[in-house]
Amino acid sequence: MSVETPELTVEAANSKPASEPKELTDGFHLLIDAFKANDLNTIYGVPGIPITDFGRLAQASGMRVISFRHEQHAGNAAAIAGYLTKKPGLCLTVSAPGFLNGLTALANATTNCFPMILISGSSEREIVDLQQGDYEEMDQLAIAKPLCKAAFRVLHAEDIGIAVARAVRAAVSGRPGGVYLDLPAKLFGQVMDAAEGAKSIVKVIDPAPAQLPAPEAAQRALDVLKGAKRPLIILGKGAAYAQADDVVRQFVEKSGIPYLPMSMAKGLLPDTHKQSAGAARSLALKESDVVVMVGARLNWLLSHGKGKSWGEPHSKKFIQIDIEPTEMDSNVEIAAPLVGDMESCLQSLLNGMGDNWQTPPQEWLSAIAAKRDTNLARMEKKLSNVTEPMDFHTALAALKEIIRQRPDAMLVNEGANTLDFARSVIDMYKPRKRLDVGTWGIMGIGMGAAVAAAIETGQPVLAVEGDSAFGFSGMEVETICRYNLPVCIVVFNNNGIYRGTDVNPSGGSDVAPTVFVKNSRYDKMMEAFGGVGEHVVNQDELTVAVNKAMDSGKPTLINAVIDEASGTESGRIGNLNPQSVVTKK
Questions:
Q1: Structural domains present in the chain
Q2: What is the pLDDT of residues 149-176, one digit of tens each?
Q3: Nearest to 120 by CA among 190, 45, 63, 58
Q4: Coarse DSSP helix, strand, coil percentages of the chain, rounded to the nearest 5 percent
Q5: Quick count: other Cβ atoms within 10 Å of Cβ 283?
Q6: What is the pTM of this model?
Q7: Across the strands, what pairs with 410?
């Protein structure tokens, strides 16, 4: 892409006839060219000084520019775009406060191993370095570095191509993550010869090459697995990100081992698969003797691989598949580390298993199946209750059936109780259809994830939100309406955080910290922006409203009234909330 001007310098004007203007390009166009050369065609962001014109020019060039109301949600969208496509999602922000808003999403993307590039305009270096008080002055590069995989600053237009290439490769190679690209305002207006500019653009070749595991590492893992009496496979979102779905299925089914999917790995195999141990989680973790970690980490979500939920200390051997060597032994000893990309590692195990692989003892499989069936029957009783107002199980029973009938739909889920109950209740049938709060368990990802899911997949989106979680990003319903996205939001409204029943212990006039305005009508927010709002109080109304929304593809928000007393403190992680033991007189 280039621009024409009759003169670049006095010398250029004198050396070339006026009838043959020099063809030039600038930082704006070089950045766009670099993105498009690497098949990065969608930008999520918030316009403003100094990047307003960049957004306009990117859109004019054919790129899709999705403008949000807050940078954090644009960043969350970019991160989810990276997860779904295996290409770095792009987030564009203004300087200083806008950059800081996007930084939360960048750090979250890095923690979750989602490839993302945060691009922020910034103040001029000579003023920032002398701390002379420039507009939104901040040393953004220094702030970003500890929170992402890599951070780069570009000072010269001729370096834009190589900077974008480095950012792309850093974001997707090895363990994926976030990258920061700092672009001072002066960079955009820099002009250079268009032909030289074209030569400076770099198309990254093989940005995430296969990393083959060592043959002896694969054999070690198989030897450990052969000795197992009660083996278990844990599938993590790293396995889902890899998009090696056929190999994952082959490995699980050929091994015959029960598997436990982490929340964003649900659907790699259908949750109704006969080997699924999701409904027998506690038994599977406690009684297993060899655990195969497939793209999962032994972090707080798995009690760090130790503690009461895992049974007797040192009673298990772990096989771990991960592309990052330093992940091994992060919490417990890994008996068989298998370092490499997901597909290569699993294929090496499949090749070594041969045609006569012995599946686990029937006694273990029967124990898992019996516990699973018992727990599913117990859950079914809860789901079959008819209550008005609804409790979490009543409402989720309706959504469970809707997802069963619409397995291609994207499910976004966040909240405390809304998240915890939903991931246990709603079965998933296809990979990468469930998007939730991820490794940090943070709230506020909902609307950004919903926008990205709709943009990147073209599928209808069902966003199941707690009323507290929705509040973090609720203004983005305007974004959903503005782009007319097929997103149906269901807000589980129980009047507060966890529950709406807390009272001020002092007896004062302020409400308790966890209580919201009673009987809020979130559906009216959607109506205010031209979308469809629905208010439902029972299961039948919820079923009709969601199916109508999913069929229509219209932006819809359903305010689902939930019994305000039905929640539990902090969902299932109340143990992380310290309790005071001091009684003051």
A1: 3-200 (3.40.50.970), 215-369 (3.40.50.1220), 385-561 (3.40.50.970)
A2: 999 999 999 999 999 999 999 999 999 9
A3: 45
A4: 45, 15, 40
A5: 20
A6: 0.94
A7: 461
